[in-house]
Amino acid sequence: MTRLPLHMAALLVLITYPGFLQAETVKTEEWQIEADKISRFDNPESVVAEGNVVLTKIRILPPRQTVVQNETSAWAVLLEEAAVNEPVAVTQETSEGSPPRRKTEVIIKADWIAYDVERNSIKVRGNIAIVSDTDQLLANEGTFNLGEESGTFKQATILRETMDLHVEGETIEKIGANTFHLENGWMVTCKVEEGLTPPWSFAAADTKVTQGEYATLKHATFRIKNIPVFYTPWIMIPVGNKRQTGVLIPELSISSKNGFGFNLPLFINISDSADLTLYPEVLTKRGFMPGMEFRYTLGSQKKAGIMATYVHDILSDPDETSYWEETGYTHTNQGRYWVRGKLDHDFSNNIITRVDIDVVSDRNYLSEFNTGITGVDNSNDRFLKAFGRGFQNNTTDLRENTMKILKSWDKMALEGVILGINDVRRNKTDPPPLWKLPSLDFTGSKILGATPLSLAWNADYVHYYRKDGVDGQRFDLFPRLSMPLPLGQYLESRVEAGVRDTYYNVTTFGDETWDKNTSQNRLLGKFHTEVGTTLLRNFSMETQNTDGLTHNLRPYIQYDYLTDENQEDLPDFDSVDRKDHENKVTYGVDNFFTLFGNRNDEDTDRDYAYLKIKQSYELQSEESDTPFTPVEIKLRWNPTRQAKLNYKSEIDVYGDGSSHTVEAAYTNDRGDFISIDYRFEDLEGEDTHQLNMAAKAQLTDTLIASYDIEHSFSENETIEQNISVTYIQPCWSVELKSKYTPDSTLVAIFFTLANIGTPLGIQL
């Protein structure tokens, strides 16, 4: 094989860039050719390379410091012919130390290449492969312009590794560095083994593909294997990680309640940090249901998202009597909507902002429209993933909308909150909920000089508002002084005393009246002291994963006193306005267990378990028949890093009931998990008996099953149950899902195509 190294010549640079010979430059591009046989012809001027031809485009990286001279030569020198005297090009390179830096940008391989000097183009035949950093073009024959990097190829294939893109066509025209035009071609966004039929594909008479962005297809058909099953005159498909404006994969649904549904999302890329998605959905039994989603992100803690959907519900017409009889729904409006959103923005100087929006037209909306791309379940999952918090339960009638601003200093914090309530309760005779416009909460602690005294405080202001009823303003100031007590070397002790002063200014709106003083004040005294000790012991228990166990035992006793004050004449806005008299002794014991050790140079220390037990005894001025409070037990156990168990109970010592809560979860490295949340409560008139469970298991390499249920034993009713089975292949997946609620039963099939938008769904 003949090989002509780069230090001898830069053949195609001289031909493609003639200005290079007349002017100095700091950027050069070179081509290097290798072949079994290379021949030159003069009329017309051309070069033919045969046998294992490799043509490589190499870019000289930007210059460094010192000016040196690099000789250049013509195509003939590259082909080992007689040298031709050419002017000298001056470039900047480091004269000492490191060699010139070069980067291979494009490699062209073929069995035969003919280079036309005048047109600066090549003809290629046989096993053609044009390889760049991101993609490959394979073909049988074609022409290629070296200067413009454009050309036309027959029986060609495009492969893109990063997005697993596979494109084939009778004719593929390369019209730019990353853009191709296909005639009578097909594409699939996953890898296809050579000689095998793709499981699915999009075929079109005319296709334009921009690598890393999107593909536009005209007169396209969606094919399963080679069988056409769906036709569209135009479709745009994403084929890269870069966000681009275009139509996303449509969502199809069939439901006995909603009829046939069709949603064709339109994604609009506003900028690198903002986008808008429109959801023009049609439900044949409901009407036109448009939706939108706006998002922006300037960083991990500077982001926002808001979604809104609306429908003029055909079934909510009062004449649709069967709808009301079958469902038992109570809303009276036809214009139905849900607006939801969140915003996180962290400013400098430790200022944090959080906004949560949740406004719905009626309490039934969230139960009816809970599936699909704009449904309740999907919306909650998306916001939970993006912001770390979702929305309130869809059965909650008082839906909170808040804006919070938090400013923190060293051991101090000021929080401002604006709270608005979206009230969708059935019984409108109840008083309207209280809004906070605004509330301010200033908390902190400070050590007083060189003394052992520490000052802590809560200073709150709330302006309550409701459109009809009693509201007003409240100031609540609660300073406390605390210090340790020197009771001995082995005892830990602390004493705290404080005064709580609460001032009210009451106002009324609407027909409501207030027959007590509009300005009132409440003064409470608070005293707390605690004495305890800590016992610690290490137990050797060498195993495969640990050296031993540390047991930290802390018994304690504490006393709390809160003065008795008549509060019947005060307004009752929230829990701050009613503080029960306290005069009690609390005793308990805390146990903490920690594993320690070192295995394979890895620290194996971790929290293993804790057990906390406590009870109080009420010291009343008058004798009480039940001075002992229920025994509280809290247990947490982490037998492994993947498993956890939480148990909490309250047991009434007088036999008047108990409550028990068990939470257990296990997750393995493969992603299988099971979680159980069991709650039983029969204490102080409360009667709750409920089980929540969720599980997911990868049964085989291609089959995943999941199950979750919320069941109320006290109501003898399953609140919600979901079962799904997902079959996964490299290029596609299908999910069969059922969802049961007391109001409806849904069976849906979702098809997901690799690297393409939202899944196709059929709901029955």
What does this protein structure show overall?
The chain is mainly beta. Among the domains are: 1-128, no CATH class; 132-242, Lipopolysaccharide (LPS) transport protein A like domain (lipopolysaccharide transport protein A fold). 4% of the residues lie in helices and 61% in strands. The strands form 4 sheets. It has a 30-stranded antiparallel beta sheet that branches. The two termini are 66 Å apart.
Topology, pairings included?
Blueprint (H helix, E strand, L loop, with lengths): L1 E2 L7 H6 L12 E7 L1 E6 L2 E16 L6 E4 L4 H4 L10 E4 L9 E15 L4 E11 L3 E11 L4 E11 L4 E10 L4 E10 L11 E11 L3 E11 L2 E12 L7 E2 L3 E5 L3 E5 L2 E6 L2 E10 L3 E13 L2 E11 L8 H7 L7 E13 L3 E10 L4 H4 L7 H12 L10 E12 L2 E12 L11 E13 L6 E12 L3 E16 L7 E18 L9 E14 L2 E6 L7 E15 L19 E15 L1 E2 L2 E2 L2 E13 L12 E10 L2 E9 L5 E11 L5 E11 L2 E13 L4 E10 L4 E12 L3 E9 L4 E9 L6 E4 L1
Antiparallel strand pairs: 1-2, 2-4, 3-4, 4-7, 5-6, 7-8, 8-9, 9-10, 10-11, 11-12, 12-13, 13-14, 14-15, 16-19, 17-18, 18-20, 19-20, 20-21, 21-22, 22-23, 23-24, 24-25, 25-26, 26-27, 27-28, 28-29, 29-30, 30-31, 31-33, 32-33, 33-34, 34-37, 35-36, 37-38, 38-39, 39-40, 40-41, 41-42, 42-43, 43-44, ...
Q: What is the count of helical runs? A: 5
For the termini, the CA-CA separation is 66 Å
- Mean pLDDT rating: 85
Helix content: under 10%
Number of strands: 47
* Biggest β-sheet description: 30 strands, antiparallel
Net shape: elongated
Over the alpha carbons, how many angstroms does the gyration radius reach? 37 Å
